[in-house]
Amino acid sequence: MVGAGLGVWKLMRGVRQLELHRLILALIIFCLLSMAFLAYYVSNSPKIKEAPPLPFSDCGGGGPGVQRAPLFLPQREGLLRQVKAVDNSRTEPVVLVFVESIYSQLGQEIVAILESSRFHYRTEIYCAEYGVGVIGFFKANENSLLSAQLKGFPLFLHSHLGLRDYRINPNAPLLYITKPNQVEQGSLPGDDWTIFQSNHSTYEPVLLASTKSSEALAHFGPSPLRALHATVIQDLGLHDGIQRVLFGNNLNYWLHKLVFVDSIAYLTGKRLCLSLDRHILVDVDDIFVGKEGTRMKVSDVEALLNTQNKLRALVPDFTFNLGFSGKFYHTGTDEEDRGDDMLLQHRMDFWWFPHMWSHMQPHLFHNVSVLAEQMRLNKIFAQEHGIPTDMGYAVAPHHSGVYPVHSQLYEAWKSVWAIKVTSTEEYPHLRPARYRRGFIHNGIQVLPRQTCGLFTHTIFYNEYPGGSKELDKSIRGGELFLTVLLNPISIFMTHLSNYGNDRLGLYTFESLVKFVQCWTNLRLQTLPPVQLAEKYFQIFPEERDPLWQNPCHDKRHKDIWSKEKTCDRLPKFLIIGPQKTGTTALHSFLSLHPAVTSSFPSPTTFEEIQFFSGASYDNGIDWYMDFFPFPSNVSTDFMFEKSANYFDTEVAPKRAAALLPRAKILAVLINPSDRAYSWYQHQRAHQDPAALNNTFHTVVTAGPSAPRDLLALQRRCLNPGLYAPHLERWLQHYQPSQLHIVDGALLRSNPALVMEGIQRFLGVTPIFNYTQALMYDDSKGFWCQRVEGGRAKCLGKSKGRKYPEMSPETRAFLAEYYREHNMELLRLLNRLGQPLPSWLRQELQSTSWS
User: Fold this and answer.
1) Which pairs count as long-range contacts for 52-59, CB under 8 Å and 24+ apart, including other chains?
2) Mean residue pLDDT across the chain
3) CA 246 to CA 264: how far, in whole Å?
4) Which spans in 60-155 are helix H?
5) Boundaries of each Heparan sulphate-N-deacetylase deacetylase domain copy (predicted)?
6) Which tens digits make up the pLDDT trace of 736-761?
7) I want to staple 401 with a disulfide (CB 3.0 to 4.6 A). Which of 18, 406, 632, 749 is the partner?
8) Greatest pairwise CA separation for the chain in angstroms
């Protein structure tokens, strides 16, 4: 039984396995048939396509299918502003594009666009058509070929040469300041020079030199050892119509600088060129001052007179200008005291100017009368010894008090000496010297003063800092020579000790004058200081107005600034206007903050200081700082001032940025049409005849032939509302992060919200709760300060006047007038990432449908 059962079980298992195999096979066949059927159905059924993409329906951004909000910007129907007429004398379409390099990514992209458009973009075409000269430099480097032809030109270059014996070609047409027929003997520095060879008549050598060795030119044929080769050539433009000057090295060699100046003059038709006249004045400070053993003796005074006479043969009427401190008369050795006496014996042979009596720095005197008394002592000394006292020129020891201005010095100078002219090396800064300028303050003309490498301690030739060769290098084409070359007027500072000992002052200026006359055609002249100042400001009238800067930003300035003064009294932010936009309300709101302090009101200019925009700027920063208290905490206190006419005054941004470069700027903007109307009503309230006798519509629509007073009123109504260009002017001097635009309409309707944003922009702490500090006054129609007892303290009657609505006709005219300007403002604010004022959105939406 067991065996039979086992057999049945095996039989049943075999049947079940067979059925399972059949089931799997059936499933596989079914899948294959299904796939075949699906493939047949798909290949033979009609295809259902999705809707094709639609083309862009407008010029907005985004791609297909992107939903675009309707634009509210107005359509431009015509240009409202006058565009400068195209010069029809030339018909060629030319654009000059400046890029860092045509091989940069930007340069390559521009080239690709121009080439794809079939536009020529070669610089040569522009230069030839418009007479633009080219100056090039070919200093050899490791990649320079020994010999090569300049592609496209009949000119060969030979590089990596050592040269000697530089000379000037007298036939070079570009020579103007440079005097020909001079030879600079000896080797030229370096072995990286390039020379030029050509048989074409367009090339004229300017500077020539010979090679150091005959082997140097073996790669382009035999040449005599002392043959001359052009190292600077002038291309007269006969080959391709373009004039060029090509240098075989850079400007490190002094003679190249001289020829470079002539090249600019020649290639610009003398439009970029100074005259040949050069005025020099040599001041000798510290007469009678100095340590024993360093002062002038009788022989030194005789040498001074002898050199002055020799210089007069080269510089008509040349005269040393001596600055004296009488207290130190006869304080040297016996021999030096006799030198003092000899100076006085020949006092009429020199010009004289006062230093301080005791050589004290004027900024240490805070009382004008004490400072003046020091000057009187010096004047009494001068009178007793017959020293002329009417030169009208003075110099302060260490230039103290001249700049930064110490007002007491200027007052004392004028009262005691009737000073008209002074000089300093500190305006605007000592370094770099090329930026030194003049200015006029309190009726005294301040001229730039130059150093010449001679100071009180440089008294021996062999002990000159860096070696005597450094002094000679400065004279022979170096800093001192370039000072005379590049400045029509130069006042040089020297000292008494430079004329004793090795007499380096005499050596320096006699050598300099002779060197200038050997190598240049300059006409050296001199004038007394007052006449020299008159000539200076005739040449540079734009320098009359000073540009006050923060003394604490220059260590040298801070060292010669009164310790009683502090930069902490300067404001951290400005409300710049424009007028009639709510700046007074903003001023009053900010003044409620416990950490914010306003300037004191001005008694003369409607409470505003108006320092950067008016004549008060000439008073200097001492006058300005007197309007601010001393802060109790420098780091947390925020001082500010509000002068609403800063906004559209052209000079205000530059002046403000010079003194307050880190300040933050608040500008309040409202609808310019409303601003214009408010100004008109303001002028009516102040009895302006033009406003009283003309309607607002007449004022804003007046033509150019209207009366002058009417046009003046029109400008003050309309011009400040051209917001974008005024803001752009401020952004030329301040970073966008320093500017905050206040929505004047929102300030009026929700001041608490606006003030919170302003506090965060300024970084004021703690954040003041203006919701509790302000309340709305129904009778005034404005938000006012909430005071004790729940009462409102509002601005005066002159603020928030109610006047008739502007006529629809006038509003429509102004909306059209300002439409393009509001568009410019929109683009500017978008660029700056600043939110759009609510009134601007509304104005653009309304004009877009008109």
Assistant:
1) none
2) 88
3) 12
4) 105-116, 123-130
5) 277-481
6) 999 999 999 999 999 999 999 999 99
7) 406
8) 162
Work out the average pLDDT over 85-89.
44
Give the pLDDT score at 79: 37
Q: What tokens were used for 52?
A: 């094709």
Token pair for residue 88? 């029809």
How many C-beta atoms surround the C-beta of residue 834 within 10 A? 14
Contacts of 133 (CB under 8 A, 6+ apart): 127, 242, 243, 244, 245, 263, 266, 267, 268
Tokens of 230: 């052009």
Q: At what angle do helices 808-832 and 672-685 cross, to 10 degrees?
A: 120
Contact between residue 374 and residue 356 where contact means Cβ atoms under 8 Å apart: yes
CA atoms of 405 and 621, how far apart (whole Å)? 8
- 362 close to 413: Cβ distance less than 8 angstroms: no
Peptide bond into 707 cis (omega under 30): no
Asked whether 194 and 157 are in contact (CB, 8 A), the reply is yes
Q: pLDDT value at position 86?
A: 37
Q: Torsion-angle region of residue 159: left (phi > 0), alpha (psi -120 to 50) or beta?
A: beta
Select from 438, 441, 439, 383 the least CA-distant residue to 416. Answer: 383
pLDDT at 53 over 90: no
Question: Per DSSP, which regions of 664-717 are E strands?
Answer: 664-669
pLDDT band at residue 95 using 50, 70 and 90 as cut-offs: low
For residues 550 and 624, give the distance between their C-alpha atoms in angstroms, rounded to a whole number. 12
**Closest by CA position to 282, among listed 395, 415, 386, 125:** 395
Residue ranges for the binding site for 3'-phosphoadenylyl sulfate?
678, 783, 799-803
Q: How confident is the model at residue 8 (pLDDT cuts 50, 70, 90)?
A: very low
Contact, 668 vs 612, CB < 8 A? Answer: no
As separate numbers, helices (DSSP H) first and strands (DSSP E) second, the chain gives 26, 25
Q: Which of 589, 588, 613 is closest to 601 using CA atoms?
A: 588
Do 776 and 765 touch, CB atoms closer than 8 A? Answer: no
- How far apart (Å, rounded) are the C-alpha atoms in residues 535 and 827? 47
Note the pLDDT of residue 711: 97
Q: Where do the domains of the chain lie, and which CATH numbers do they carry?
A: 94-132 (no CATH), 135-267 (no CATH), 277-543 (3.20.110.20), 566-845 (3.40.50.300)
Q: Is it the case that residue 222 has pLDDT exceeding 60?
A: no
pLDDT of residue 64: 43
The three-state secondary structure class of 271 is: coil
Q: Which residues participate in catalysis according to the annotation?
A: 580
Closest CA to 674 of 694, 655, 696: 696
DSSP letter at 734 equals: S
**How confident is the model at residue 146, as a pLDDT?**
84
Q: Which residues have a Cβ under 8 Å from the Cβ of 524 and sit 6 or more positions away?
A: 278, 279, 280, 314, 315, 484, 513, 516, 517
Q: Is 555 exposed, middle or buried (0-12, 13-18, 19+ CB in 10 A)?
A: exposed
840: which residues sit within 8 A by CB, 6+ positions away? Answer: 669, 671, 822, 825, 826, 829
Task: Give yes or no for a contact between 466 and 263, defined as CB atoms under 8 angstroms apart.
Answer: no
